[in-house]
Amino acid sequence: MRAAGLLAAGLTGVMVLAACSSGSDSSAGGDVASTTSLAGSTWTLSSYASAAGANTAAVPGSDGAPLTFGSDGTIAGSTGCNRFSGAYTQDGANLTITLGPMTLMGCPDDVAAQESAVVAALPNVTSFTADGDLILKDGSGSALLTYAPGIADLAGTSWQATGINNGNEAVVSTAATSGVTAVFGDDGTLTGSGGCNTYSATYTSGSGEIAIGPVAATKKACPDEVMTMEQQYFAALAASTAYVIEGTTLTLRDAAGATQATFQLSP
Hints:
The strands form two sheets. Strands 10, 11, 12, 13, 14, 15, 16, 17, 18 and 19 form a ten-stranded antiparallel sheet that branches. Strands 1, 2, 3, 4, 5, 6, 7, 8 and 9 form a nine-stranded antiparallel sheet that branches. The chain is built from three helices and 19 strands. By secondary structure, the protein is of the alpha+beta class. The longest helix is centred in the first third of the chain and has 33 residues, at 2-34. Helices cover 23% and strands 39% of the residues. It folds into two domains: 42-149, Lipocalin; 157-265, Lipocalin, CATH 2.40.128.270.
């Protein structure tokens, strides 16, 4: 009987230790998940909860409705139409977002509905998960907004110009601007069209900084206005020292922070 009692006690001890071990592993997994830092990350909107609570896909063809978490506790983003700024506080998996100023452009009906949902949702965020996608949740744990990881680097991306600095401190767009392209290769080469001629250069990038080497281009002749734009574009590339990717938009800036060229991600 005594041996049976000792055996039972031993088994009970093993069960207790197993339970403690299991709880510890679960806690550790939770700790790993909760220590994901959002600082410095950029995301693009995949879906949002409508006013009726239905999961609704983000409007295609918008700017990607990006959301960027700054390392200084600020946020910047877009609803797919208007841009906003604000602040955030993260404590493990807990997250609060305070919206700041927002632009006030008119939006198409479908984007306006998305904008209303995003603007209503962000202040109600209390927690998040970031296992691949970023899911922002309310106090009940319901998903309010789902974001996909944004583009982290230039390598392997292709872009179509939407504006070019004309050398007079203005970024302009004409009917020919969309013919300007930039393809950032994985091997450090930059190629594309200047609107008339094809070009190539080298580039290095990282941590928001970029250096673009001298541009070599073909010598085809085009209408004067196209040739002028092309030369302005090549000058803009040479002056660029920094870049910002927000959703599906790319901005190149010079050392003083002046915009040199803007792009939309190519399909």
